[in-house]
Amino acid sequence: MDGNLPHAGEEKGSSGDTVESCRRALAATVVSGELPPETESLVGKILKDYRLDPKGIHGPAHWLRVMDYGRMLGEKNGANLKVVALFGLIHDARRLSDHHDPHHGARAAAYARELATEGRLRVSSRDLDLLCSACEGHTAGRTHPDLTVRTCWDADRLDLHRFGWEIDPGQLNTPEAVEFVSRPETPVKNFLIL
Ligand SMILES: [Fe+2]
To answer: Which residues lie at CB < 5 A from ion ligand 1?
Structure first.
């Protein structure tokens, strides 16, 4: 998937149509088979509903990187890749602020259930419950009994790199993520701060 992603550095100096580039990249993930087919139309709705600056720190470029990190981790540890990808797409989509917004995870979970009820998001009840658990707890949650939820949280935390922050392995939940941040070649400060 990495080749499909509009990494932050590629956005700089582009036409500025971040939403469109992310829509195309997200659609490409559907084509690659990572997301259910109906997700392509779902992407348009989620982008339309997003209330913050799409170039902001919690916008679509971040969602795509979380999806990318989640896939990397999930391919190693056997997490549910569809749930992990949908988490990347939805977990910050209902933020009302790029700053303190303690209830955005709960809103994202409610949004996922709403989309499922409307038939826009077709996942099993088991996958929807996992997705909602991951969304609800992704900010304050420290650990979780389910591997897929832990993988979702780590995928989000690995993108703290975008702030130039070194990631504390103690905040991670999977050995795959801990191994990733411990690699000497893992970038720490060379991500564009959006
Ligand atoms: Fe996030």
So the answer is: 92, 156
